[in-house]
Amino acid sequence: MKSSLRCVAVVSVLLPVCCFAETFTIEQVLSAPFPSGLTTAAHVPRVAWIFDSKGERNIWVADAPDFVPRQVTHYKGDEGQWIASVRLSPDGKTIVYARGTELNKEGTSANPLNLPKMPKQAGVGSQCERR
Question: How do beta strands 70-71 and 56-63 pair?
Fold first, then answer.
């Protein structure tokens, strides 16, 4: 008798969850925007981070006191090229980062789009003046 009551209790709790749960697609899950790589400038109140939106990776910065975000890089589309090692200069005026993947055992970078010109990992710098 106790096990029957437990089953009824479990079903009564889980039934509404199962029947009314919202569904979502794999594309929706995989395309969720994702910030990472937060870093700061040593001598000014500025932060920078990588923002991945549907595979489109760019760097954003924000300054105190309002920390309104603004986009520094403008890479378009999902090229499969990662951004890593984001660093701000101590004065916050320059941002440096690596774009692209590390070399594989064949000595080449990843080329997920099968581009005719093989992508290479590169160190990149950008100016990011205060606004």
Answer: antiparallel
In total, how many domains does the chain have?
A: 1
Q: Is residue 120 part of a domain?
A: yes
Separation between Cα atoms, residue 69 and residue 56, nearest integer Å = 17
Give CA torsion, residues 108, 114, 120, 126, to 10 deg. -160
pLDDT tens digits, 60-119: 999 999 999 999 999 888 777 888 899 999 999 999 998 887 777 887 777 777 778 776
Among left, alpha and beta (phi > 0; psi -120 to 50; other), residue 55 is: left
DSSP string, 86-118: EEE-TTSSEEEEEESPPP-TTS----TT--SSP
pTM attached to this predicted model: 0.69
